[in-house]
Backbone:
């Protein structure tokens, strides 16, 4: 599972981790039924506390993306929620726009220009 | 098609030799005849028919296995050499064993009188090894084509200010069950050993069970982490012990399909310059070191891992 975190992201870490996992699933690296690496491995790789990863995983479970099963660990329950994924992409777009000096309204204009 | 046809013809030829040689000297053999020796004295016997059935059955099982794996074994050099040397080596071994058995039984009144000259077994083994070596040399053929991933390693674009890590994992269910069984046996033996029951059985089984348990634990699961300039390969369900490979020592990485038949089986497999950690057939992450060697690890989602490794290597090269 490939996870990317933005070092300049101001959101709480667990939200960022949830976003990274949602993106990894949305990109098709994991299909419904596939098991995720253990939270301990993910936390170790990211260099953060296991509880932060667990919190992110619980958020994604509440979203319906993941499924917790006793003895079987965490697996993907369904396709990534389209809206959640879009919100996330839009947020990333917003930040990228900011980097290039485009405001929110500029981006809306760009979007409206696309048919 | 050709290897399979050669295998079929060779199988029939060996079977014919096994059967005809026995019938040719049938009148000069005792029935039952000696079929097993300890040292040079016979300690096991079988009827003529029984012996013939046993040796052809062994050859039939080997033949089925060889014919079934014929097509798959040809693509790469190591499996190809192994396959051809097994085909001719095993046939030679069976013919040698048959000739030796018949020679020892020839013209003796009772099977208990059939002594086996000491040079027979070394001669048969030497013959087998010579044939295997010859077959391997003849089957050497062209060197393996570099895998496509090797030519075009997967890449990934990293943005600045982004931290990327990859975690891959693979678990072998069969080995997991073997570990559970070995653990049960170990506990059982340890408990009965502490209670002072069946000491001889405990001392015979306990060390083996502990070794099986440790080896099984190390090979039931593998996890790989990429990030922070290091590739960390953790063995076993707890990811420990672990091996760390610095990214600076790696030249490139790619994903490739490999099967245990190619690497020589499951577990930790080493051939010079091409070590493999093989827990299951299929997708493997292959690393090429700057020193020229390769390391392959059977792991899920290997392509993304390889892409990240290549991206991190490229990033290091820039800075």
Residues:
């Amino acid at each position: 599972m490939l996870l990317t975190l933005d070092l300049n992201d101001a959101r709480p870490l667990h939200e960022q981790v949830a976003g990274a996992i949602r993106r990894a699933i949305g990109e098709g690296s994991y299909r419904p039924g596939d098991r995720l690496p253990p939270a301990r491995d993910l936390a170790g790789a990211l260099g953060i506390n296991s509880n932060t990863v667990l919190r992110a995983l619980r958020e994604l479970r509440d979203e319906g993306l993941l499924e917790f099963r006793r003895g079987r660990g965490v697996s993907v329950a369904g396709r990534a929620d389209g809206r959640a994924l879009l919100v996330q992409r839009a947020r990333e777009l917003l930040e990228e726009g900011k980097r290039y000096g485009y405001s929110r309204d500029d981006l809306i204009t760009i979007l409206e220009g696309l048919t | 098609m050709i290897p399979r046809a050669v295998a079929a013809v060779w199988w029939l030829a060996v079977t014919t030799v096994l059967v005809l040689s026995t019938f040719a000297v049938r009148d000069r053999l005792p029935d039952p005849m000696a079929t097993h020796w300890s040292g040079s004295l016979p300690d096991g016997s079988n009827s003529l028919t029984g012996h013939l059935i046993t040796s052809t059955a062994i050859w039939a099982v080997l033949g089925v296995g060889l014919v079934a794996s014929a097509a798959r074994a040809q693509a790469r050099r190591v499996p190809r050499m192994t396959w051809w040397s097994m085909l001719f080596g095993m046939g030679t071994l069976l013919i040698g064993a048959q000739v030796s058995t018949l020679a020892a039984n020839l013209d003796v009144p009772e099977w208990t009188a059939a002594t086996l000259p000491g040079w027979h077994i070394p001669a048969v083994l030497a013959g087998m090894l010579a044939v295997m070596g010859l077959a391997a040399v003849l089957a050497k053929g062209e060197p393996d084509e570099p895998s496509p991933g090797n030519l075009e390693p997967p890449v990934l674009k990293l943005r600045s200010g982004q931290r990327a890590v990859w975690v891959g994992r693979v678990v072998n269910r069969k080995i997991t069950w073997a570990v559970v069984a070995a653990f049960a046996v170990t506990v059982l033996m340890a408990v009965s050993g502490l209670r002072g029951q069946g000491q001889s059985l405990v001392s015979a089984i306990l060390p083996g069970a502990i070794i099986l348990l440790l080896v099984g634990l190390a090979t039931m699961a593998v996890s790989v982490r990429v990030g922070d300039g290091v590739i960390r390969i953790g063995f076993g369900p707890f990811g420990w012990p672990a091996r760390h490979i610095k990214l600076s020592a790696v030249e490139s990485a790619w994903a490739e399909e490999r099967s245990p038949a190619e690497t020589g089986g499951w577990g930790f497999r080493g051939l010079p310059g091409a070590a493999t950690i093989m827990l299951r057939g299929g997708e493997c992450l292959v690393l090429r070191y700057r020193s020229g060697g390769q390391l392959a690890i059977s792991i899920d989602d290997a392509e993304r891992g390889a892409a990240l490794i290549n991206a991190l290597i490229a990033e290091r090269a820039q800075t």
